[in-house]
């Protein structure tokens, strides 16, 4: 079974765990093409609308239909993988194939205060703390701001957050943008750190989350403007569809997957019409809806299944994948957070999503907590060990060792054990000790607090080169002036 004009990479990218089969991927894709060719999608950006019309899309006002040939051409021209670097210019993540990387999420309006546990508005100081914690943890591969800064104008919060991210971590960064102007200032900061725009483009350490379609089948002006800006300026762009089963998308997981892939492939087509060969990362979040409070659920089996099916389809097309995990609907870093974090992390890792964001999220993406980053790091390490599987060869089968130790012997003193025991995954948080009545056992929340506190007190982030921090501060000051002038202009127009 195959789809004419499309090469299947399903088996090449297969990770040993899939949600749907290769045949089912093709069934989903045929349904996607049918929707794209027959159901109009609203394009709320004149320049993008004209691009699509010029490329041969059908149009009725702002509604367009997209022929399959444009999707095929876009899949062929889009890079199948790309590299993100560290702030120091070292290769950090090869995004594509079977690789999975985990990172923080963006823009939570509230934060669980580490000292008091109080739920309060998040600040740029919280972003700085998140960066320091993430910088110290081995399984957090990239960062996002996690908090939404309330201590500056909301119109350029993303610029203030990028300032903190560049100062307090060397790991790859996923920024976001309120506007093309904000993205321009973010990229100016990145160029300052890299030593120039050319050097940053050669070794990019940042990508931009440009926004979302408005499900169902509506692509807003601001998201498209930011997508086009990133493509024109050769910056990796991330475009994410948010399905909500039974409200904004069909209640069936399969129908929601079709709708989400339609929106993601529409973004892909637009990106390649803007600049053929530019890096585009697509993803879908499939949220179920609890019909009792009528609220979305991140921590649900349908979340894992819907996301996994989307990952399989995007693997089939060999496209870079934006994934989601480690998020919880709990208001606290508690047992619910651990269960939801573990299931979403494991399934996303085994499914092979490439850039998996949202570590640190609690309260369904309304709040964040430092301790949740630390717990997510532990969960990710566990999930990665499972994905790694076991190695079977002459050395690991250990037949000579089994014969040598014999019946009733012990392996703890054997050279083979000494050689290989470090290969067994080691937790930094779990309690594997024997109960001692003279020692009070600690709960996981206590151990999380202690580890987070230790990182905040002892971890030292590699500083920026001399003079660069001041240059970043100056760029932010210019950004404040821009926001002030734009505000004054809007007032005059009224």
What's the short story on this structure?
The chain is of the alpha/beta class and 494 residues long. It has 18 helices and 18 strands. A 5-stranded mixed sheet has the order 9-10-12-13-14. Strands 2-3-1-11 form a 4-stranded mixed sheet.
Ordered list of secondary-structure elements with their pairings:
Layout: H1 10-13, H2 22-38, E1 41-43, H3 46-54, E2 58-60, E3 63-65, H4 68-77, E4 82-85, E5 91-95, E6 101-104, E7 110-112, E8 119-121, H5 124-136, H6 157-168, E9 173-176, H7 180-194, H8 197-202, E10 206-211, E11 218-219, H9 221-232, E12 237-244, H10 253-274, E13 280-290, E14 295-297, H11 301-317, E15 322-324, H12 335-351, E16 355-359, E17 361-362, E18 367-368, H13 370-388, H14 394-397, H15 399-405, H16 415-420, H17 444-458, H18 468-493
Parallel strand pairs: 1-11, 6-16, 7-18, 9-10, 10-12, 12-13, 15-16
Antiparallel strand pairs: 1-3, 2-3, 4-5, 7-8, 13-14, 17-18
Helix pairs in contact: 2-10, 2-11, 4-10, 5-6, 6-7, 6-18, 7-18, 9-10, 10-11, 11-12, 12-13, 13-17
What would you say this structure looks like, in words?
With 494 residues, this protein is of the alpha/beta class. It has a single domain, classed as Alpha-Beta Barrel (TIM Barrel), CATH 3.20.20. Helices cover 47% and strands 15% of the residues. It has 18 helices and 18 strands. The chain has helices at residues 10-13, 22-38, 46-54, 68-77, 124-136, 157-168, 180-194, 197-202, 221-232, 253-274, 301-317, 335-351, 370-388, 394-397, 399-405, 415-420, 444-458, 468-493; strands at 41-43, 58-60, 63-65, 82-85, 91-95, 101-104, 110-112, 119-121, 173-176, 206-211, 218-219, 237-244, 280-290, 295-297, 322-324, 355-359, 361-362, 367-368. It has a five-stranded mixed sheet with strand order 9-10-12-13-14. It has a four-stranded mixed sheet with strand order 2-3-1-11. Helix 12 links the parallel strand 15 (322-324) and strand 16 (355-359). Helix 2 (22-38) packs across helix 10, helix 5 runs parallel beside helix 6 and helix 12 crosses helix 13 (370-388).
